Amino acid sequence: MKYRRLSSLKAIVAFLVFTLLISACSSPASAPASSDAAGDTASDAASGDAAASGGDARQFEGTELNLLYFAMTYTDGLQQLLPEFEEETGIKVNFELLDEQASVQKTQLELASGTGNYDIVGIQSGNMPLYGQNGWVTPVENFYGTPLSDPDALNPDDFIGSTMDALKYDGVQQCLPMFAATTILYYRLDIFEEFGIDGPPATYDDLIEIASQIDTDAIPAIALRGSPPSPAGNVWSFGTFFHGEGAQYFADFPNDMTPTVNSPEAITALENFVELLQNYAPDGVASYVFNDVVTAMQQGNVAMVIDGAPLAGRILNPDESKVIDKLGFAVVPAGAAGQKAAFVAHGLCIAADSPNQEAAYKFLEWATSAETMRQVALASNHLAVTRDSVWEDPDFIAKYDFDYGGGSFLTAYQDSLAVAVPDYFPPFAGWELIGQRMGQAVQEAEIGEKTPEEALNDANEDMIRILQDEGYLQ
């Protein structure tokens, strides 16, 4: 299916400019690249005319790279290892790490504007169609097989296949994955035992029933992301309920883009989500971002959470956690359509307007190599690795296979990836606008401004207008 580019691009830029002016995030001090310079670099790499052999570690000595993304365990771990890379290559790398939503907004505005301020940007896989359609990144595949590339460091077959596929556009590998995210259920073994509950809930009906039994003023039953109203916020958590009931965003994506977010299945999903937040969650949960969910479980302030499996490294940080040896892990409960865990891959990309694309590729190859990923995982609490060989590494297993009597964490993680929805966020360039409107609807229901049915009916009407404006519907 061919997607229109111009109106989506205009809408996104208009949406982002005001937010970014408010945040006043400064760009790194680097000279903007001309589009001609960026294009020449990319074409040289693609044709195999790399400036020097991939074996020359210091061929880009003196180059300065700027990276933009949000702060996460992997970027923290890379920064710890960065002196080794800089000493070996002579390349200096500046990290600009914002909060998640601000980084997505700033990245899209920078790339759409063609500033050339950044050489490397992070991406969430749901945005891959937008970036690919607009030519915002230079495909990493352009560098495969050139003298620049080190086949041992690259080794694309070692990546988890779904994470690589999620970062392709039109069948071409655009970026390299460094983070594989899905959702799991974390639950307090001690509280379940206290109330005579044998194991984790199998269905969402079970989840609500158990929540009603174990909820107390001192320790509420569950925490979920209630904010921000966006794909990275409440839509990420709500999506497991939405897909679990068999709801769909569109009648027949991508052939029929008629929105269907007010279907009976979607309404049931939002009713369940809202019931948990309004009746069995901590006060103020509608404003909880993922850090609040992590802290709530880490400090023993709730009995259950449904959130990212990669967050276990923080929840069970031995220096901070009060629930060490008290957690069980399970795949998310099932709705009418079964268990539907979330899925997103995060990757690193080369900005199409970067003046330093070859050096940026060398950094990507190092940053996503199996050895770097292994070192980051063992030296930090990053466990969302995308390399099969690291998942099988004995030291990695010894560190992260938490099993306190409630089941192996790594098994729950892998089982969740197996049932995760590949297109958890529909892969098309207009998703950001649709996802933001969905987040608004979920928030309206969370805070009681509208009933779930009213919120989704209004959202569906707005989505029709959005898609008409963007050319997806007549």
Question: Which labels suit this protein?
Answer:
20 helices, D-Maltodextrin-Binding Protein, domain 2, disordered N terminus, 2 domains, alpha+beta, about 475 residues
Describe the protein's architecture and organization.
- It is a single chain.
- By secondary structure, this protein is α+β, with helices and mostly antiparallel strands.
- It has 2 domains: 27-42 and 53-180 and 344-399, D-Maltodextrin-Binding Protein, domain 2 (3-Layer(aba) Sandwich); 182-342 and 421-469, Periplasmic binding protein-like II (D-Maltodextrin-Binding Protein, domain 2).
- Helix content is 45%, strand content 15%.
- It has 20 helices and 15 strands.
- The protein has helices at 6-23, 35-46, 73-89, 100-113, 128-133, 151-154, 161-166, 189-194, 204-214, 234-244, 264-280, 290-298, 312-315, 357-367, 370-379, 388-391, 394-400, 409-419, 431-446, 452-469; strands at 64-70, 92-98, 120-124, 137-138, 168-169, 172-173, 176-188, 222-223, 250-252, 256-259, 304-308, 327-330, 334-335, 338-339, 343-351.
- The strands form 4 sheets. Strands 1, 2, 3, 4, 7, 8, 11, 12 and 15 form a 9-stranded mixed beta sheet that branches. The protein has a two-stranded antiparallel ribbon with strand order 5-6. A two-stranded antiparallel ribbon has the order 9-10.
- Helix 9 runs parallel beside helix 11.
- The radius of gyration is 22 Å and the shape is globular.
- Residues 1-53 have low confidence and may be disordered.
